[in-house]
Amino acid sequence: SPQIVWLRRDLRLADQPALYAAAHAGPVIPVFVLDDEAARSHAYGGASRWWLHHSLESLAKGLGSRHSQIVLRRGDAVEQLCEIARECGAGAVHAIRHYEPWWRQAQGKLDEALPDGCELCLHDGNYLLPPGAVTTGSGDPYKIYTPFSKAMLERFPPRDCLPEPETIHSPDKWPKSDSLSDWGLLPSKPDWSGGIADFWNVGEQAAHERLAEWADDVAQYDDERNLPSRDGSSRLSPHLHFGEISPAQVWHRLSGRRGQGWRTFEKELIWRDYAQNLICQFPDYPSKSYRDGYSGLWRNPNRGHIIQEELEAWQRGMTGYPIVDAGMRQLWQTGWMHNRVRMIAASFLVKHLLIDWTFGEQWFWDTLVDADYGNNGVNWQWISGTGVDSNMFVRIMAPLSQSEKFDAADYIREYVPELAEFGDEDIHDPPDHKRGKYPKKIIGHREARERALSAYNDAKQG
Ligand code: FAD
Question: According to UniProt, where does the site described as Electron transfer via tryptophanyl radical lie (predicted)?
Fold first, then answer.
């Protein structure tokens, strides 16, 4: 009987356990359902929709060249999958497990709702180890990264990768499908043809090409990853997010390269598993602070504070701090931001501007091509010190000295054209009289630091 493969953030043909199992059990019906309701504030953001469009297009092409296709449906995933299962007399729905709360809920409902004779088969495949696989000595999930990471390393290697199925048989009759172009995932505004579209190649093949191109650089990762002016990190994040490549594939491709660069990179990959491990424990983590004593800390329009102008200055890269502005403009132009600069820009929002981190989380959610429920939420809480892990609030990053320390001059020249002609001595902190059209600092660093620390102390006492 036909086997449905429910595709979500796993848009690949190789090392795709759900597709692999389905292809060995019968004719395959790959299905993607676009549900704009279930995820509420975490429905696909603008940049993610752009990526999703191209990723689905690429997957459809890949399936087409294997005499298969993808069925696109819009609406409630459980209803759509049940309808297809009934229509085609499907024997099973195969899917890779996902842990976003709306998908966990759908997985649970689907299990109940599928017609008799059609079973739900969930597979692991998008993490180095299945979330929940490592626990503390007393059997609890970890809350802190370092012991989590240690326990993961003790359990490695991750599972072996699966090949692409040799053949993907088609069903006798295909269920009806929407047309991708009718979904309107590509925005008419802004026009990203000069930015995001030039910066990225989307799809499974592109992911493997990027990995191959970058593989030798892992040796220098430890030295280069913090330097925004260099191409020192893998830029695999959107490919990993959409599952165009699996972390196991990345691990196995690179793990032969012993050395500090690889060891540091492996730990970053583990951060991705760690974030998911927290989401499994605390499903609302990306929208709710988990540490007491913070509720009164930030200026927040819900409590009558006016933050709009400053929030917009941050979003548009007009704060007067070149490293922050370069990062925010890189984000807008390319849908991605260097990790070190993400940390600096996020810290600037929550500490220098005293704006609640959830505004930053939502802006990143809308503008990042790698916007990821776990990674984004966990990193925002980590920077803000509001999470279940470290209390980082009092570690206030100094954007000007960070910019010098990590040699961001060329990066600033690239993304802040007003400063393109500035020399190294001025570019990190241009003197006011030389700024021209570039804005003055929105707030002085020392003043911001004192304000943040005193707000923190007041909040703790209150
Ligand atoms: P590399 O340095 O090459 O790392 C390889 C992979 O490891 C990444 O692709 C990513 O999957 C994973 N990884 C690396 N660092 C982290 C980390 N700190 N946390 C979790 N996973 C990590 N990453 C996202 O994928 N999606 C997000 O929405 C996201 N939001 C963030 C928000 C803030 C405020 C901060 C500080 C970081 C955020 N990150 C997010 C983590 C990190 O910045 C990106 O994963 C990284 O910059 C992606 O670039 P890369 O692929 O070149 O990373």
Answer: 298, 357, 380
Buried b (16+ CB within 10 A) or exposed e, 288-314: ebeeeebeebbbbeeeeeebeebbebb
Q: Which residues are annotated as a binding site?
A: 221, 233-237, 265, 370-372
- The letter for the amino acid at 238 is P
Residue ranges for the known binding site for FAD are 221, 233-237, 265, 370-372
Model-level ipTM above the cut of 0.95: yes
CATH superfamily for 1-125 is HUPs (3.40.50.620)
CATH fold for the domain made of 127-160+203-281: 1.25.40
pTM: 0.98
Q: Where are the domains positioned within the chain? A: 1-125, 127-160+203-281, 287-461
Pocket of ligand 1, beta carbon within 6 A: 225, 233-237, 240-241, 268-269, 271-272, 275, 339, 342-343, 346, 364, 368, 370-372, 375-376, 379-380, 383
CA 442 – ligand 1 centroid, Å: 28
Query: Whose CA is closest to atom 20 on ligand 1?
Result: 272
CB 85 within 8 A of CB 2: no
How far apart CA 187 and CA 170 sit, in angstroms, is 33
Q: How far is the CA of 152 from the centre of ligand 1 (A)?
A: 18
For residue 263, give both structure tokens: 């060891």
Active site residues: 268, 271, 298, 339, 357, 380
Tell me the per-residue pLDDT of 339-386, one tens digit each, with 9 for 90 and over.
999 999 999 999 999 999 999 999 999 999 999 999 999 999 999 999
The CATH superfamily label for domain 287-461 reads: DNA Cyclobutane Dipyrimidine Photolyase, subunit A, domain 3 (1.10.579.10)
